[in-house]
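User: Hey, quick favor. My workstation is busy. Could you predict this chain's structure for me?
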Amino acid sequence: MHNKMVMDGNLAYLQLFNYYISLLLGNKHQKMLNKAQQKDIKDRKSEYAVNDPDLPMEMMNRRKGGLKGEKSDEGVKYLHDHYLSSFSIDDFPRLIHMLDNHFNTVPEICAERPRLLTEWYRTNGFENDENGVPWNPELRQALAFKYLMENRRPIIASNELVAGTTTSKEITGVIVYPDAQGTMIWGELGSVDKRVLNPYRISDEDARTLHDVFPFWAKRNFREQVRSQYNNPLCQQIDERWVYYFVWKSVGISHTIPDFPRLLKLGTKGIIQEVEEKLHDDPGLDQKQKNTLQVMCIVLEGVNTYTENLSREALRMAGNQSNATRKAELLSLAHICHRVPMNPAETLDEAINAIWIMWIAIHMENTNTGLSLGRLDQWLQLYFENDMAKLSTDEERESYIKKAVELVGCFFMRCTDHLPLSPDIGNYLFGGSSSDQAITLGGVTPEGKDGVNDMTYIILKVTEMLSIRDPNVNARFNLEKNSDTYLKRLCEVNFTTAATPSMTQGDDAVFASLSQHGYPLADIRDWAATGCVEPTLCGKHMGHTGSILMNMVAAMEMALNNGRHPMMTWDLGPKTGCIADGDFQSFDDFFQAFATQQKFLIDNAVEFDTMLAEAQANCRPTPLLSAMIQGSIDSGVDVTNGGARYNTSGSSNIGLADISDSLMAVKKLVFEEKKLSFAELKIAVDANFEGYSEVQVMVRNKVPLFGSGDQEALDMANRVAKMVHDIYASHSNYRQGAYTTGFWSMSQYVAYGNLSGALPSGRLAGKPFTPGLTPHPSASKNFLDNIRDVARLEPENMDNNIAFNVKLIPSARDSREKTINTMHSYVKTYFEQGGMQMQFNVVNSDTLKDAMANPENYKNLLVRISGYNAYFVTLNKEMQVELIERAEYGM
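Assistant: No problem, here it is.
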């Protein structure tokens, strides 16, 4: 990750070249990998050993006991103890077995999807059909998808209550999308099982299959379509240096929430009927609109065929089953799959299976990154209540509640059955990230009533018991409508798991950020998190909330160097002034230079995003997702072309605190207090402060930082955020929607930091940026200063949400109840001051160090990165060290 090699040209062929190199190296390549792994293990043991045998047990002991939740939420109808404290994972042997499989099975690459799709395209053509006539892209995709769904293997995993698997691998498979970024793994097909970080297994058969199909896709993926059509444009070249920005549409559009309530209410047959009525009753449809609608029916029929195959498989398995209990479960699954998702769901079992089967299908069409599940507690509560109403005794109801917990647990574990395909570079760009399937709980209903219900607490119980990284649970909290009982439960689950759920305050912050787009209030109230933390209006919004991941520090470095990025040695940006020549007469002059460089990068990122969106509309339109998003049937337009009711594209902007602190250093030390000249400050920065320690000390001691409680530093952060927001707001996306602005960072704050030089803030070259918009650890020793500053950021500039990372350390002397009450006070104070989002790591640095040295003892140690969860032991060393070095606040 030092960007010493510049890539130019088809990345698929570069990966093929890498594969040939690995063959030439032969055993030497294997020895290199083994040596790297052994050195890594040795270094961790020597550098980070804590030698405290009680540390692993401290985390395990949190799972014992638990508080009881008083009945205080109007929407909770049947739970006497809201917290379900009488249940523990020990009550669910089925879930224990699934967890063991999850943590002890190496994910395996699955070639089923690319094999079946390539079979169909080779027979029927891609650009042109078998008669040489250019394909209608949507019809081509629909027919290929139907073939895929009809021919993929129907699997019901061992002891499972939810039918179907995302891949042909029962426990965890890695999906390959060669039409998107799949060819990026080509160079590792002979070594991916041996790499140091997050290895994948791959069978010889699947490796042969991928070697066979990748040539077909080498020029037919999104990146290469843009490179060919636009002659390797500058905006693409910038993206492929991996440091300025990353445009996610090269991977997939994803990042939205399907309309599951409509599926549960109508079933696929009802949606098909809706499409057919539109075709029959609307005389104003043109032929293109008719084609778009007709292909929706084709893909939905493909889903139905797959479901029928699952039903037959369940019957076959039941016929071979000697265990009476399991036989009954399989017969029940056969009946469920015979009914849903084709027909409306009637029970909780049917609702969960219908959602899961459609979820599999959507992931066969769309890349499994950031597609999210929405407000499951709101949508499943009706079925829970209906089932409970049929029961007459307390014993029956208690038994059913336990079944509901287990059923949701099975659904969660099914969500772990697939991973995004990540080449080794992805371990540094997106380290530890899973598919980021966000589930959102609580908040208010579209009518403005308290949205906390029985299923809210059932899902929280499952979150606490399983403590897995995906699904990514987000919790909404409304200060007026939601109870302290609920907020304390969110804090307790965070304490137990050490990292989840993320918490977001609605009406004063997210609602204010979304209102600028003119959405109806009822739709704003129905927002849910997508991917990491980004708000999406459920079932009607093609938000692609992760479209651009922008490194703001790159623009700062270019402003400091008259458009040149020093580490990339590239004179890329506009000429905005030379510090050595005295071109900046005021701070505002320099701020404008920074803004100009930032606009240059955003403009190029938007240009590349638009080109990729056009390539997706032509190469991989999404008729199934279109049928599941409101607006597309009414308009007769695929969502890739703007058919959804609402169309936006979301950005993540990385390094806000580092930028604000650097600008404050320039403003204070150079232009206001004149402690040193701008040229002197730049010399120190260029030298990475080596030999200029007095300058670094001056920056650290004399400059008020964001998060210190200083009004001027807060104003600077707001000024930067508004500038970035306004640049994005000046653009429209390919679907004629707005760009939104967020300040969260996935794990790229580490990767981008590794490729960046020193900053005027005193940050040294190669060090991570602060995650999300979290203040620098040196900003203040008082956590309340951090809270006040982050809470006072203007929400209108953050319409794609934020990630505020907080590391809290419980006192060993405090009771569980006192710890939870203290966490509750912090969160409530932050929300009352207008804070938007907060996420915790409730784990101390010694535990993290011990996990680095002894990863075998911490397979399930969950940490919160910047908007998503990860298992600490799967992270690269730089990310682990950054988590250790985050500021710790006691309780």
